[in-house]
Every structure is written in C-alpha cells, then in structure tokens.
Amino acid sequence: MFDNEDTRKQLLARSRYLLYKSPQNWTENQYQRSRILFKEYPDIKLAYDLVQGLRNIFNTTTSIQVGYTKLAHWYKDVEQSGFKTFNTVANTITVNYRSILNYFINRSTNASAESFNAKIKAFRAQFRGVKNVEFFLFRLTTIFA
Q: Mapped to the 3 state alphabet, what secondary structure does 97-114 carry?
C-alpha cells in the first residue's frame, strides 16, 4: 500500500487518466498519485515529460524558427531517452517537418480539407460509385458550395 492507500495495481490502473492531462488540470488526488507513480516508475516520468514537451511546443510556439529549434531539441531528447516508440513520432516529424512547421504560421491544419474529402467519399458511396463525372461534380458544387 502506498501513502494514498492504493495498491500497486490500483496505482497503475488509476494513473492512466492523469497521464492524458497536463499537470495544470490534475486534481489533488491525481497530483498525489503522480508523485508516487513517477517515484516508483521513472521511465513513465521520462515518457510523460517527452509527451508534455511536444504538446508545449505546439501550444506555445508562434514562429517557425522557434518551432524548428524546439522540435530539434525535442528530437535530441527523444534520441537520448532510448524509447523506440517515440522514434516513430520523431522520424515522422523529421520526414514532414516542412509541412509541420507551416502550422506555426497561423495555427491552421488541413482538418477542413480532410473533412471535405470525407464528405465527398460519403456522398460517392451513397450512390455506389460515379458513372457521369460531370454530373457528379455538378451535384457536389450545388450541395457543398
């Protein structure tokens, strides 16, 4: 039993919810549980800090140059941590860094384009394919324009 009267199994099960949040949004119980968790499992603390670091980069950075520098430092931290799962994210950022850095210009994503693409696919599926492309495009413009 720990100080908060959790067993080891309860600590791990109940801690997963606090790991989804930033520390500012923790309740007092979650804060106490996090101290115990991070003391018992330092690897979880390191992984949580890496996640929070990446989250903070996207929440606070407003310039491309600063974002590029912070992402490079975060990448270095990932390499030093030795977590292979974070290498996947770091490699994705390395491959697509130009597109990712565009986010810092006006904080826009391609979510609206993805949403529109999903609407077109659903519309096309509703009619089980397209035989007349010109009429299909006409219907798209009249419905979604």
A: HHHHHCHHHHCCCCHHHH
